[in-house]
Amino acid sequence: xxxxxxLAGFLALGICVFASPLGHLLGVxxxxxxxxxxxxxxxxxxxxxxxIVPLVIALGLISIASDFAPFFIALAVATLAVLILGLxxxxxxxxPLLRLTMSTAICWILVVVLPSINVTFLHFSxxxxxxxxxxxxxxxxxxxxxxxxxxxxxxxxGKNGLVIGMSLIWVLALIxxxxxxxxxxxxxxxxxxxxxxxFNATGRLFLGDSGSYALSxxxxxLSVYIYQVNFVALHADVLALWFLVxxxxxxxxxxxxxxxGRSPFSxxxxxxxxxxxxxxxxxxxxxxxxxxxxxxALFAFMLPQWTILWAAMVLSIYxxxxxxxxxxxxxxxxxxx
Length: 337
Hints:
By secondary structure, the protein is mainly alpha-helical.
């Protein structure tokens, strides 16, 4: 299996090195506009391709000699479909409602093809018996989780290193609970994330919508699958804790926009990462954001019976940041767009 890891790593590295010509070839280059896009130069939106294309190839190779080939192939096809959807969005900016509909359709097909990722029960650390989801509610809940995570991750993708860093944390967390047959997939994903992170953190490429969509669906499907297989160790509340920060930030942003009479998908500079960046350099803001994701996940791994406490801790810190930084931005006249 080592040769698969080496192949994936070299392919990811090659795509990153040649990101600029690839970006121009595919027509996915993000140009600064002096308003919302404040980066210094035109930057290729190739990060998602560097992460996902090697993963898709690795999934195909791993499936050749695996008893779990249907799962690997279905995951590869769905991930590639979402990557292509994101590339189209990067090129032509698909309307949010159409994009949401297409993402939901892809996830629905995936759940139909792979019933093993259909969440039919919720096993919490604080309850003795699981809660069962019967009939269509299981499908609705699963789609809500997958598509909701995609939108939350996409909204979080506003600064270099953020989504890739969170994804790397989630991959490491999944490795702690993963069955043996999924370990090669997670290792490949971890390798491509680490390689691409170096180029993204230095501003040589952006993740793009293609990257945030495909990464979120991949992590979401793997998370649901591992939960279904190892629910005794990986409780539903522990899994929810991993994604709590981007999801709660997404819900706050959408609610705030609706209350102001705007579309919940309209852009602004009121995200958590904008608030952190308003008072400190990005490397510190990035560290705080990632620690807010990683530390509770680590605590829940060591002491899962206290997961509710870790969630309360995250929500308290998040609320404190939003309250203090939001007030600070308002005092300095930095009203969110």
